[in-house]
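Suppose a colleague, Dr. K., hands you the sequence of a protein chain of 187 amino acids and asks what its three-dimensional shape might be. Before reaching for any lab equipment, you can write down a predicted structure in token form. Begin with the sequence itself:
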Amino acid sequence: MKAMGTLRQPALVTYQEFMSGIHDHEIYGRSEYWDGEIVEKGMPVDLHGALQAQLSAELVFYFRRQPIGTAMSDLHCIFEPGRRVLVPDIAVVLGQHRMAGGPLPRPPDMAIEILSPDDRASRIARKIEYYLSHGVRMVWLLDPEIRRVWVHKPGQHAVGPDGTLSGEDVLPGLEIPVARLFPAVSE
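The predicted structure, expressed as tokens, is then:
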């Protein structure tokens, strides 16, 4: 029996073990790899899943008009081989990308994260900071509860429910009214 107040140390896994298990969703599914630790991302439920589907659809339509890249949900992205593999809710990859059925061998150009009730602010902040310091050009952070989207780049800003998300210089011409992403959320 574990004594009260004792913290369980996470079991460390090698990078090779993690990479060999990411195709088996029962083992690692949406899990991320941070320096030997497996960080589980919860499965999207109701509003989170609906937002992820809506935003994915918006991006599919955008890339049909502007064939400059692709968007993929829950894709393992290798940031530092041997150290970090992260899974944005949606990863945007610009240019030609051959769909090989495996992880993206580099950071995405843009990452989109949708807050879930069990997300901790410190974990999300650390992840966004890491994204931006390792080649991700823009991060959108959606908060379904307050219907806001934070745009993280050098010089971030928030977009409210009456505003419009812009792809800026990362996805030129992309404009999505925030209200269109949150139609199911009541005031």
